[in-house]
Amino acid sequence: MENRAPNRLSREKSPYLLQHAHNPVDWFPWGEEAFAKARAEDKPVLLSIGYSTCHWCHVMERESFEDEDIAALMNAVVVSVKVDREERPDLDALYMSVCHALTGRGGWPLTVFLTPDKEPFFAGTYFPKESAYGRTGLRELLQRVHMFWKGNRQAVVNNAGQIMDAVREQLAAAAGTASAEPGQAALDAARTQLAGIFDARNGGFGGAPKFPSPHNLLFLLREYRRTGDVSCRDMACRTLVAMRRGGVYDQVGFGLHRYATDAHWFLPHFEKMLYDQALTVMACVEAYQASGDVAHKTMALEILEYVRRDLTSPEGLFYSAEDADSEGVEGKFYVWSAAELRRLLGDEAALIMAAMGATEEGNAHDEATGETTGANILHLPRPLDETAARLGLTAEILAERLEACRHVLLAEREKRVRPLCDDKVLTDNNGLMLAALAKAARAFDDEDLAGRAVTAAEALLSRLARQNGRLLHRLRDDEAAIDGLLDDYVFLAWGLVELYQTVFDTAYLRRAVELMKAVAEHFADPNEGGYFLAPDDGEQLLVRQKIFFDAAVPSGNSVAYFVLTTLFRLTGDPAFKEQATALARAMAPRLADHAAGYAFFLCGLSQVLGQASEVTLAGDPAGPDTQTLARAIFERYLPEVAVVLRPDEDEPDIAALAPFTRYQLPLDGRAAAHVCRAGSCQPPTAEVETMLKLLGA
Questions:
Q1: Residue 599 domain flag
Q2: Are 554 and 215 contacting, i.e. CB atoms less than 8 angstroms apart?
Q3: Which BP terms from GO are recorded (predicted)?
Q4: Residue 293 CB partners (closer than 8 Å, separation 6+)
Q5: Cα 669 from chain centre
Q6: Which of 232, 378, 568, 626 could form a disulfide with 224 if both were Cys (CB 3.0 to 4.6 A apart)?
Q7: Rounded to the nearest 5 degrees, what angle is found at the Cα of 231, between the Cα atoms of 291 and 501?
């Protein structure tokens, strides 16, 4: 393949597009050149959207896009456009909504046929090369499209128009009518819905496949804090324990794979996504604070170690993902034969096979035939103390021996051909990891994690922000490009808000405020409320979409609500409260059908409807008395508490952002906590016990 002359994609930065740079297909990146060619040659456009770590995207490339005959047919009858969904989530969202409207489902690779005016008239996902088993193949599909395009053009054009009309109607229907902001009933409904599908045997929600969905866990943990309902905490904690023991967790190198294909968290799809790591770390941090179970802290630190080792750039930013495949085989990098384990571990092989579910014939089965493959996916089928008892060991001794074996296996695995690392830096996902690092640093009192968060924040603000403060979406090969979308702004603002409350550098809070002001100016829908995915001065697509539903990551609107409500409490600026209330009213009609689908929005609502509290710590930031007060808050599970630090200075920087702090001073020469809870402020106190009592801790 590499011997072929490169196509236009060779000039792109996206690793996904570069994977296709030597296909015989005459690919175009998204842009006017492709559509001008389609108009000039009177051809439809085949739009193929995927991402670098997508297994079925690789399959379709190997079967069809590397095939000379299929490529020749594509080059003859369509203009082919390839898009990285992670670079252009706005395009992906638009055409995925078309796929859902036409087929009732979606996924990647996303395959859409467009008119030269970018209107879709057919959509699907993966297509095999040839038709078989009642499924249309790409060859037949291309032939049919060509026949209809040449022989029944008006019907195709009319169909495209009807499809877009239907999509617009669906979007309008989904919006509903803005009403009063949602209340406790929405929180109760979401709890009930999640409890109804909780898998009490295996952890997680529903059956196969199982996704991490950490924002569901964050919602349950926050509802535990608000209501005292222990079952909410237990569902979240049991799910994290099950994930940590499963094959969905990389037992050798740490970090989560994308999802499990079964209900037991055993057989993963092996790609690793940065956003899964970040959100799971946040869930682990809050689970540790809520339960005191050190296993959750350990899991968070393990994932952060994986990110440091394998997903961190030299300047401290974070890469997007690692592929599932290496040497053309999914999971090959991660699995072990019994013979390999014996060769590497000697006498300890029996121990690790017993503890981690490995067998002579292999515990992994071919999905098509069900036959064993000889490969073992390491996992922990039983709790460690139960396995230790079976082996006549203490849990501590077993853990030490397994850790020694893990180091041996990790060193050996590093010699293998690695899966592709998608090394583009995305602002939105980096914002999530910034938030995760900051939260972990604060909860664990970890200066190293705080330093990593500061390094990332400085690099993001210097490399992915324009001179006018507007954001760019992607950085790769020293090129920052693509106008920032809603998620870039609000996810980075979230990370900066968390970082401010960890290191108390007012510059980070100021930057978060500026980002949310840009969101209000360029993304707000003044008519129906909520925020558009794309800015008002960005590329004009067929539809300007708003996304509210929380999918693999929380929606930009959910995170915007969380950030706005937090900024109101940190700064006292009523504009943030007004914007949050308008957003909540836009969200309200959507919650009626399935409130649990908006779990991260409900995280923000939970703290608004609970005993939301604000604390200003007045004192020397480096003083032990100030640090003692801060640690007393941060080591407890108090997600509803927003913390501002007011240095003992005449005109501190924070007073410009939060004017209410101007006269919040230390008490008799000692650091003081000024506590407001549920809208009621109390006299300042220098005593930890009094502060915690005022906070309901």
A1: no
A2: yes
A3: carbohydrate metabolic process
A4: 237, 287
A5: 45
A6: 232
A7: 45
Q: Is 395 helix (H, G, I), strand (E, B) or coil?
A: helix
Q: Domain end: 257, 292, 325, which one?
A: 325
Co-location of 386 and 488 in the same domain: no
| d(C-alpha 394, C-alpha 414), whole Å | 31
Rounded to whole angstroms, the Cα distance separating 317 from 1 reads: 32
At 167 the pLDDT is 85
DSSP state at residue 65: I
**What is the per-residue burial (b if ≥16 Cβ within 10 Å, else e) of 557-581?**
bbbbbbbbbbbbbbbbbeebbebbb
Distance CA 192, CA 354 (A): 39
CA dihedral 360, 271, 328, 346 (to 10 degrees): -30
- DSSP H or E run through 47: strand 45-50
Asked if the structure places residue 420 within a domain, the reply is no
Which contiguous run of DSSP H or E holds residue 259?
Answer: strand 259-260
Ramachandran angles phi, psi of 30, nearest 5°: -60, 130
What would the pLDDT profile of 157-175 be if each residue is shown by its tens digit?
898 889 989 888 877 766 6
**Global confidence as pTM:** 0.96
Counting Cα atoms < 13 Å in the Cβ hemisphere of 124 gives 12
How many alpha carbons lie under 13 Å from residue 680 in its C-beta half-sphere? Answer: 4
Last residue of a domain, one of 387, 415, 443: 415
Q: If you write DSSP's letter for every residue of 262-306 in order, what string do you get?
A: STTS-SEE--EEHHHHHHHHHHHHHHHHHH--HHHHHHHHHHHHH
CA distance 519 to 470: 10
The CATH code of the domain that includes 673 is: 3.40.30
Tell whether the model's pLDDT for residue 319 goes beyond 70.
yes
How far is C-alpha 562 from the chain's CA centre? Answer: 16
Q: Give the 3-state secondary structure of residue 79.
A: strand
**pLDDT, tens only, 176-235:** 666 788 999 999 999 999 999 999 999 999 999 999 999 999 999 999 999 999 999 999
The percentage of residues in the chain with a pLDDT greater than 70, rounded to a whole number, is: 99
Residue recorded with tokens 């964050």: 218
Only one residue has tokens 């109390």, namely 682
β-pairing verdict for 27-29 and 79-84: parallel
Determine phi and psi for 260, rounding to 5 degrees: -100, 140
- Which DSSP symbol is given to 64? I
Q: Where are the alpha helices (DSSP H) in 132-176?
A: 138-151, 153-175
Q: Which residues touch 515 (CB under 8 Å, ≥6 apart)?
A: 469, 471, 489, 490, 492, 493, 496
Same domain (yes/no): 404, 454: no
Residue 235 token pair: 């569902």
Query: With contact defined as beta carbons under 8 Å apart, do 201 and 230 qualify?
Result: no
Q: Render pLDDT for 578-589 as a digit per residue (tens, 0 to 9).
A: 999 999 999 999
Give the three-state DSSP class for 104.
Answer: coil
**How far apart, in whole angstroms, are the C-alpha atoms of residue 319 and residue 332?**
21
Which structural domain range is residue 284 located in?
208-325
Cβ atoms of 124 and 107 closer than 8 Å = no
- Contact by Cβ (8 Å): 212, 259: yes
Helix axes 574-591, 153-175, angle to 10 degrees: 120
- Both structure tokens of 89: 């989530």
435 and 411 co-located in one domain: no
643 and 635 in contact (C-beta within 8 Å)?
no
**Separation between Cα atoms, residue 519 and residue 531, nearest integer Å:** 8
Residue 203's contacts (CB-CB under 8 Å, 6 or more residues apart) are: 238, 239, 240, 241, 242, 243, 265
Domain identity same for 33 and 84: yes
- 155 shares a domain with 24: yes
Count structural domains, the chain.
5
In a domain, 404, yes or no: yes
- Residue 290 inside a domain? The answer is yes
Q: Are residues 408 and 442 in the same domain?
A: no
